[in-house]
Structure prediction request, 264 residues.
Amino acid sequence: MLKHILVKQKFWQLIMHWSIIFGIFLVLSACGDLVKESETGACNSAIDARNYDKAVSVCTSRKDKASAYMGKAGYDIINLLKSSGSSATAYTAPSDVSLGTDDVTGASILNILQLSVAVLDNDTKRAAAITSSKNNLDSASALLHPYLSDNSSPLTTDEIFLNTFALSFAMQLNQIIIYDNATTSTTTTPGGSAGSLTCTEVSGASNTDAAAMLKAMDGHLWSSERDGMQCARVKAALEALEGDDLTDAHIGISHLGLQVICYL
Prediction:
């Protein structure tokens, strides 16, 4: 009976995965956002050849230029097809290490953009590529988003789709950049006394098995990693204070059990 349930569960997970991939493919195909022919021959040729740097400079229409930035970010049909054969799955932390919950939303986005560990195993190059991708997504939305409610030059349906993907993907990459840094904490606020504040790392996080699952900017965002960054930022803010202000602030946080979420 248990085996039958597990098989059925795997079946529906597979159906869901391919439904999502198929849905995105239909959106890309329907809106023609990244490879549709342009009115300008040079723009069309550059996009078809995936020469997005050239496309950014030669494309003149708002939509084509935004599409070029999306291509530079890694968002095009070619990469979607490459990513369709794989999917991100959550890790299970070693039983003796409290890493928390593994959020794989970021890993799924990295897979689509071809920025995952499987594609870029060098941590430094991957981090740089993720930052570059976010910047290009921001450039795409900067061209489109101001016209979202502008009746003088309203966005087309294609442009609305492009803008939506640019914003949502950039937001997720920003989460990876801020929080996914392989640094953990058992709490969101520092312990200790004023002048000697500390963020306590999760016990066993540096062990071989746990460290293999705790990689910076891999898209697997553990809740303890998020706590680690929040704790570090609260600690830095407190340490920037002096004298009575530091003591009062630390006492206030300690008494209230304040949970701080950093928005950038």
Notes: Residues 7-179 form one domain. The chain has two domains: 7-179, 191-256. The chain has a mean pLDDT of 82.
